[in-house]
Amino acid sequence: MLSPLAPRSDFPLLAANPGLHYLDSAATSQKPAAVLDAIRDFYANANANPHRGAYALSARATDLYHEARATIARFVGVADADAVIFTRGTTEAMNLVASSWGRANVQAGDEIVITALEHHANFVPWQQLALATGATLRIVELRDDQTIDLDQLRALVTTRTKLVAITHVSNAVGAITPLDEVVHLVRARSAAVIVVDGAQAVPHLPVAFDALDIDFYAFSGHKLLGPMGIGCLIGRRALLEKMPPYQYGGDMIEWVRDTDSTWNVIPHKFEAGTPNAADAVALAAAIRYLEQLGMTNVRAHEVALLERAEAAVRALPGVTVYGPPPAQRSGVLSFSLADVHPHDLATILDQHGVCIRAGHHCAQPLMRRLGVSATARASFYVYSDEADVNALVGALTAAQQLFASVE
Q: What are the residue numbers of the active site?
């Protein structure tokens, strides 16, 4: 039996619901007690506004906020911690780049290259930027296994390409992008800025931004055991310093005169208003929890679970599994069951205590290419085990029997 990498007892919601099989971690992860404790401890013992008070409590809050940024920078391999910008998550991070860097640098005649694999958060901002500026949007198609067609990427990237936006790991099918190959290909053909959606990568794979030779990388805290409403944009300092602010208000200014203003240094230039300090501190606690587990172990655990789950699900009649082989995927099993709508399937599985996602997974361009409106998606994480796999297969079998009896 494959045991969980992290004990369910560390996760209050799972510990209180022993019959629950939570297989929707790609949507959001469960939270360990260490993260919940960090949030409560901040508000109970350090609650003050960072950067705004000349008293000890505010200094304590400021220190914790800065320490959280340093912890996150270490975890994702960024030597320059000030290049880590706190956002509400990946979606806001992508919109920040599109609105700030994009509006200042992209113009008619330029080309933006994205892929058909992208989450809407890494598709729509560039689509809308192209429409607003008159730039041309180029979409890289996929191979039969829903991985990015690198040959077509090579053909689409030219000297006119201003930006390439690409996912590190697909949320819908789990496909892992070979970033080294992509970056080498893009750098050999253009001076394009490379933007990477790391929302599904940072929770599951070791990531080292400084070694990737990319320009921007975004991820969300709630998918890696942290709170909702906190995430990060990592950028090259040279680009961040030239970019105009994304929002205006407190703490992002240097001087406000009657007729104009000047801006604070990074990261503060992009963090207008009262910071989400408690959630930043809790995200750092989540990272320390993952570091204790070891990201190499996280990856190995997921691959082992995914291999067993896929083999068992494929053995059922009428099942179609999407994406490349498990070794080339993160902990996602995306599938469909013949003659059963994914939403109906998810409802039936819920009656058996199995939580999966059903829908287009905010990836409608990908769904169109698959020829479906939706898929069912089971996603595994550190607290998942073989009992979850068995429950999934048992519930799918029960669903098939139910629909067969209805027919």
A: 362
